[in-house]
Amino acid sequence: MVELTSAAKALWGKKTVHNDQELWLPLVAHLVDTKNVMQWLYEEWIGEGTKAIVRQNMTDEDAKKLVGFLGFFHDFGKATPAFQYKQSFPRHKDLDADIVENLTRAGFSLIRTDNRFFQRSPHPIAGEALLEFFGLNQSLGSIIGGHHGIPPQKDLSEIQFESYTSNIWGKDRDLKIQNEWKNVQKNIFQFGMSLCEYHDVKEMPDVNLNQAVILEGMLIMSDWLASSEYLNDSANIPLFPLISLDDDFDNLNMKDRYQKAINNWDLSDQWFPEEIMSVDKQYRLRFEFKPRPLQKEMSELISNAHDPGLIIIEAPTGIGKTELALTAAEQLAFKQGKTGLYMGLPTQATTNAMFTRVEKWLKNIAKEQQINPDIKLLQGKASFNKEYTSLQSTEHIYDNYYDDQEGNVVVNSWFSGKKSILSHFAVGTIDNLLLTALKQKHLFLRHLGFSNKVVIIDELHAYDSYMNSYLVKTIKWLGAYHVPVIALSATLPKVRRNDLLKAYLEGKYGCTKIEAYHDWKNNEGYPLISILDGNKLEQSNKFSTSNDEKRNINIIRFKGNEEEIINKALLEIENGGVAGIIVNTVKRAQDLARLVPEDTEALLLHSSFLSSDRENLEQELQKNVGKGAKRPKKMIVIGTQVLEQSLDIDFDVLFTDIAPIDLLIQRIGRLHRHNISRPPKLSTPTAYITGINSYGDYGKGNEYIYEKYLLMKTDHFLNGQLKVPEDVSHLVQDVYSTDTDSKIKDISEAKGKFNNHLLKSKQKAEIFQICDPKSPAQKNLFGWLNDIKTNVENDIHASACVRDIKETLEVVLLKKIDEEYFLLNGENIKEVTSEKIAGQAIRLPFAIIENASGHDKIDSTIRDLERGMQQLHTKWKNNIWLRGVLVLELDEQNTANLNGFLLKYSSKLGLIYEKE
């Protein structure tokens, strides 16, 4: 074993002052910590499937050595004058002077420092340059150079030695000083090589792009973990703390330090999926019911796959696709060596509803295996979900020694911010998945997190062409990591199905040639399961269906204004029942809600409610019309698109605005969804289609939300009766296929606009997307994130990147009376928690932002909002819940003026706005 010199042990890796005590961590200690953590992650934390990606061209032992090497040498660039003479932040002059004195005592000549010049050699770049100087290949050098989240645009090693020699070796021409630094760098290099059991740098393998991305993700995670002094902010659970400046490396027991840290950090347990031997028993065990024939038959088909990749399930709403997908997740995790799950959904509302179901499923597994798996709810309002926030945190699992502490679903607080996706289990909006394709800092962590999971994509039909571009790119990368993907949809155009199948195959094998029967591209079977098994495609649409799964729905076009729609709904439920009204805009929903008589129970749900109000409304909705609900005698439920997605609710009669056929069928899936008794008048399922003025005229609002081309084709092909499941696939294919355009009168103008929008959406979406995983032009990480997308640090900005939506602002609504601030329920903000204040947030409609003065509408609106809240800004600047929050001040009538609009908030109607 190579011995470290006193000079090597004098180099610092971290330094600070805490409670007037000077603290540091020797550089070599941090390198050894990170090496130990990275090897532990490889051996114990990532699943077999992700390990297989890492060790594509090497043995398991070689892979362990390689990850150790990367962990140790990630901060090798700190062994340079550019870093060692760097000032502390915040500046502690005495600490900096004492560090320099230690370096001098260790034999380093004092050199003149210039921090501005040193900035040309950040330590990741310096480390990459030094390692390539010692002979390391570029594929691994680029990982070292990019471990702070963004790889260099190109290999910068030569320029470091040619132009910034003094940054690396102390002086341009002073050989004595250069040799001081060269000797210590050589000593650390030889020590690290010996520690990682390498004899020659030529033993290092070249890695491909997929390997490099996962290795970079592991390296960033290891570095962050090894840089965490404590598990959480309370500093009561130590991980890798700094030591007194009076202590040194020789006094550290590095093995004991690492083991204690891992024991304190790794409090949740890994899931080891087991083979499902009996589908019948599995459904009873997990869900406490016998599987429907379709569920059982599809689950058995999945169990026969040898190398399952992408599975697309197209089946009617209410058939139990969620339970089918969770069962498939266990089957695929076992086959492909994955240890977690991500469930992606269209909206925050649907994630809240789905979280309950996934958490129950996971708790069942936890009890069975006596483990404590960790979970995250990944959406902007997760902190206001009571079910999620009530889960126990990992650091408190063993607080009560005698309690039964095994078999609980927990939350690991270390998995926060950009680390959130590393949690083994997560439920969130589809945005978190689509961001896998967006160039952004620390993207590697997202790839690492998903590489270890099975991915379920719900409501596949709900994503437009812009989002679908990101989805196709994401599917390619999931294919490259052999991540099993289960995509669910009630309806799906065959073109989109085929694009996703080819994308997964291209990511996995670099080609799109699928082995299947000759006409697989035109399969219009329904229900349909498509299983990509290796490069073979198995499809089946031959399933047993019970009578309650077949429905004949009457379709009636209803031409009338809002008042006439409400009157018709009241007439339909005059003898009892629940009428659902789904419209395409918030304003139309609010107008309808105002017209419901006070003696009729009504519920309105859309996106423009405060988080707290919306959560209460969602719970009320489930309580009244959810599965097993105690239904009211008479009720009208009004909502926007939030009612069509992933909510297990049931209406006796439905009114819905015209929409593209796949979305319309999804809405109709909320009609007579459950097998329950109904008022005699409403025993036949009937859907009234509203919003049609005449053929080809659907009003400005509907045509703004949806392409007129799709509305015209839907209007043409939808007749007076919809047979489910028989008619579903044929209708969807007729509407989305260009082959049927010749049947549609006066379609050419709308078609031209539609195609133009598709092209622009695709071009716009591709601007900030990463390259394909098998791109021949991308041999390593250099330049992989060139032209990076900035300002995606919060959920609103991130959503605006992967959804074709206009950027807006989120504000907290507070009532201001006599210079005092109150919540809208009347509570003084001085008497409530910061969390509760933050929960009064709402997103401003884009129309309000767009009406702001000046070129930068967002900035102008922010300035207007900030003018009256300087006092609050000062008070909240150090509050983790409230710092940076914008407040919209309402008067006693809950109204405010902003950008030429009069805004009013009502707990019954939500946010209302009208131009002044």
Tell me, rounded to a whole number, the average pLDDT: 92
Q: Count of DSSP helices?
A: 36
Radius of gyration from CA coordinates: 30 Å
Largest sheet, order of strands side by side? 6-9-5-10-11-4-12-13
**Percent helix range:** 40-55%
Distance between the termini: 79 Å
Overview of this structure, please?
By secondary structure, the chain is α/β, with parallel strands linked by helices. It has 36 helices and 27 strands. It has an eight-stranded mixed beta sheet, with helices on both faces. A seven-stranded mixed beta sheet has the order 16-17-15-18-19-14-20, with helices on both faces. Helix 2 (27-45) crosses helix 14 (254-265). The radius of gyration is 30 Å and the shape is globular. The chain starts with 5 loop residues before the first helix and ends with a strand. The mean pLDDT is 92.
Search tags:
seven-stranded mixed sheet; alpha/beta; 27 strands; 916 residues; eight-stranded mixed sheet
Brief characterization of the structure:
Helices cover 41% and strands 15% of the residues.
Task: Reconstruct the topology from this structure.
Elements: H1 6-10, E1 12-18, E2 21-26, H2 27-45, H3 48-54, H4 60-73, H5 81-84, H6 93-105, H7 115-118, H8 123-133, H9 138-145, H10 157-163, H11 165-169, H12 175-195, H13 209-226, E3 243-244, H14 254-265, H15 279-287, H16 293-303, E4 308-314, H17 321-336, E5 340-345, H18 348-369, E6 375-378, H19 386-389, E7 392-393, E8 410-411, E9 425-429, H20 430-434, H21 443-451, E10 453-457, H22 465-480, E11 485-489, H23 494-509, E12 528-533, E13 536-540, E14 551-557, H24 562-572, E15 577-582, H25 586-594, E16 601-605, H26 611-625, E17 634-639, E18 653-657, H27 661-668, E19 686-690, H28 699-705, H29 708-717, E20 721-724, H30 728-736, H31 748-766, H32 795-802, E21 810-817, E22 820-822, H33 834-838, E23 841-843, H34 846-850, H35 857-866, H36 870-876, E24 887-890, E25 895-898, E26 901-906, E27 910-915
Parallel strand pairs: 4-11, 5-9, 5-10, 6-9, 7-8, 10-11, 14-19, 15-17, 15-18, 16-17, 18-19, 21-24
Antiparallel strand pairs: 1-2, 2-3, 4-12, 12-13, 14-20, 21-22, 21-23, 25-26, 26-27
